[in-house]
# Entry
Amino acid sequence: MGQKGKEISKLDHKWLLNELSKAYAFEWVVHYHASLAANIVSGLATPVYAEIFKKASEGELKHANRIAKRIAELGGEPPATMAEIEKLAGFGKVKFPAKRSDTSGFVKVFLEMERHAIALYNDLANKTHGKDLVTHELAEDLLSEEVAEEEEYENLLRE
Ligand SMILES: [Fe+2]
# Structure
């Protein structure tokens, strides 16, 4: 990060980089699982749900990339291995429904992930408020997207 960019961030960089790495890792976990779900969901509604999960997967990768950019600006590096990503994400084992045609079972898994992301970005937005405006804006932006996605999943469950 440039000199002025550093001056205006009033947060412990080590702490902030760790928080961003956790978010980056979690986005990758969601990205991977949404991609996997798109590939394994089956049954009559397959095309519809495969498309929903594929889009979600792409969206989460975009989130991960935006966080990676911020990590780089702050002089850090995202986690180097998948093992580290899994550990940093701190979400535990993701369990998909045994029946691959259980679309609402899949949706429930992603709904839980959205709620995890909402808590994460809400926390990051609060802690960076007035201290690191660039990260704050990123956290707010991602938060609003996760909130919208949560609602979309909730609506799917109502159908
Ligand atoms: Fe996300």
Observations:
- The chain is about 75% helix and 0% strand.
- Helices lie at 3-7, 13-40, 46-73, 82-89, 103-128, 133-158.
- The mean pLDDT is 95.
- The domain at 11-158 is CATH 1.20.1260.10 (Ferritin).
